[in-house]
Amino acid sequence: MSAEKKAKIKKITIKAAVAALWLVLWQLVCIIVDMELLVVSPLTVLRRLTELAQTGDFWLCSLGSLGRITEGFLLGSATGAVLAMLCHKFSFAREFFSPAVTLIKSTPVASFIILALVWLTGQRVPVFISFLMVLPVVYGNVFQGISEVDTKLLEMAKVYGMNRQKRVTKIYIPSVLPYLMAACRTALGLSWKAGVAAEVIGVTRDSIGRQLYYSKIYLETADLFAWTAVVIIMSITLEKTFILAVETVGKKFHLVRRESNAAGVK
Fold first, then answer.
1. Cα 188 from Cα 66, distance rounded (Å)
2. Per-residue pLDDT tens for 76-114?
3. pLDDT tens for residues 208-232?
4. Is residue 73 a contact partner of residue 134, using CB atoms and an 8 Å limit?
5. If I label 218, which of 1, 194, 256, 265 is the partner at 20 to 30 A Cα–Cα?
6. How far apart are CA 197 and CA 206, in angstroms?
């Protein structure tokens, strides 16, 4: 067995052991509290999750939230990346958009959600909120990535007469991609948190947020935990899928993986 394979097995084993430890601690808390209205056991959550997964409403709500939050994430990522390129190229654009980006980062999510409920229909609010949460994260990381492109490489490209397309594909994209990946890891989690919060406050039809709201109203703690687990699973799955897609693009451009160093995000 190769050293790389051994290291991979060791990593998986450690993660499984940590997960098992947290489940044991969860079960201990449940036993100590001894009140299912406050804390339900992992087995109860799993049982309830299995029951929910057998209903059509479960998939309708899950896919509805997935679609809205993915749409907001993609719109925010695209807008943030384009805005970063624009602001890097034109100093006026940077000065013009900087206050707006700062405002988005500083304003509480709840304020935006309440305003969005006034401006938009209920179905569009989670999309808009996810978009707002993602935009400044992607903008900041992509802008930093462009700013840190090696100037010596750019000078060498000019000396050898490299055209704009080759400079973009051979220099800019490999340099910026690790920062984009770091941004996406952070932004995906934020988009799910903010998007589901918007669904809860707006009681969005066919959404996980609406189910969480009803769980609170009817004191269905098992449902609350089960739907929360769905959010976590879908968030992790979406993150892994998107990062895999970005890594595939990175391999095409012979990207050296250093995303963990980009922007200090792990």
1. 12
2. 999 999 999 899 888 888 889 988 988 988 888 888 899
3. 999 999 998 988 899 999 999 999 9
4. yes
5. 194
6. 14
